[in-house]
């Protein structure tokens, strides 16, 4: 892409959404055959009933390509019109080249720059912040933000504490430049990070600190989680980030039509709803069907909310992500789909 800032930049519009989940359904009953767990425990402690696992030949980019193509079709844009491809993923196909480069090539985004963004389960909201900034500064007109994860690959399928939770999916959004007289766009972002909790959710091996070839145990290559600490953080930060952003935007919780948060655990969503004084029907949840799909969970939930008729043009949406890092990110955006987008 080439950018010359010679005009007034437009407002960034969340123009269209798309998502993809792999076909393979893994039920709690199947999990029960793999590890010492039960459907009753998983449902009571997490709200998850089933999840999707990628096929053996599918990596994160393969899931992301389908979600991206669906979002592009909904937006009515060609791949050539995309200026930047941002892929938020904690499970890239490789350390490098980036998953975004592979995805951009596959969809034919030949005029785009492309890069990965690693903010774990907050990645999609971070990606929206960057897309919004690129568009509103005039650097880009059209940005594709994809959250794509093949977490089942990097989860120890013999560790009951993690294997019942993490799963695979992809979601995508097209962010475009729009006339500020017509589009409200993103009202604001709150992004945060606290590396003091870095060890609470990590994959020890696979980077420069512990290359795969030097890992002592195969389990070093898998997700390690301090569930209790992460749960404590998530319940606190979902409420705090929401309150900070609402206050900064001069809004109250009653101004929000639908909260679409990272689908980590139904208890986290229930707790936040209660603390924020939100009726449960204003907090979208599909975790029972997909588990925790990290950076894919918010765009997947948004796309399903749209397909279920839960999004009405003009709705004010609050998106909240939180997870490994520890990181968090929230944004308030008005749902203003382009005319081709189903609503
Ligand atoms: N089936 C049955 N028992 C399990 C289990 C499973 N799948 N996973 C863990 N347990 C056991 C533990 O071994 C522990 O047993 P013990 O008491 O004999 O040691 C017991 O259940 C309680 O473990 P605990 O971790 O205290 O359970 P919990 O109520 O906190 O629930 C999580 C565990 C993981 C569901 C919960 O901590 C959680 O949701 N954390 C946040 C996870 C998350 O959202 N991560 C991603 C953030 S982006």
Compute the separation of the termini in Å: 31 Å
CATH topology group: Peroxisomal Thiolase, Chain A, domain 1
List ligands, each type once: coenzyme A
List the domain count as a whole number: 1
- Spatial extent as radius of gyration: 19 Å
Low-pLDDT regions:
none
Helical/strand content category: alpha/beta
| CATH superfamily caption | Thiolase/Chalcone synthase
Overall pLDDT score: 95
Secondary-structure element series: EEHHEHEHEHEHEEEEHEHHHEE
The CATH architecture assignment turns out to be 3-Layer(aba) Sandwich
Helix content: 25-40%
> Which of globular, elongated, flat, extended, rod-shaped describes the shape?
globular
Q: What is the highest CATH level, the class? A: Alpha Beta
Strand content: 15-25%
Strand arrangement in the largest pleated sheet? 1-7-6-4-5
Largest sheet: 5 strands, mixed
